[in-house]
């Protein structure tokens, strides 16, 4: 299950008795579907910081870091001061980007 707008990682979920590689493939397939749906909702309401946050997080999970950064920065810029999720997701993206360089 892919949940948009959250930081919960679902990679560890196994699909039936599938080996981890197969589960990862299913996860990525569903993630691509989530990204497609998030893009659709952003197109319907491009000024929604919530929809942008959802799209940005889906892109982070798929490791599309450059696009995720662009989307999340836009979400942060549009967000009211008390909306922390976009800021938290952007911070997590930066942690992951540093981690991918360290590998």
Provide structural commentary.
The chain has one domain: Alpha Horseshoe (Serine Threonine Protein Phosphatase 5, Tetratricopeptide repeat). By secondary structure, it is mainly α. The chain is built from four helices and no strands. Mean pLDDT is 83; it is low at 1-15.
Write the layout of secondary structure elements.
Layout: H1 20-44, H2 49-61, H3 65-78, H4 85-102
Structural class: mainly alpha
Radius of gyration: 14 Å
Span between N and C termini? 27 Å
- Averaged pLDDT: 83
Low-confidence stretches: 1-15
Number of domains: 1
Which architecture per CATH? Alpha Horseshoe
Tell me the number of helical segments per DSSP (H or I, 4 or more residues long): 4
CATH topology: Serine Threonine Protein Phosphatase 5, Tetratricopeptide repeat
Order of helices and strands: HHHH
Give the key terms.
single chain, 103 residues, mainly alpha, Serine Threonine Protein Phosphatase 5, Tetratricopeptide repeat, 4 helices, 0% strand, disordered N terminus
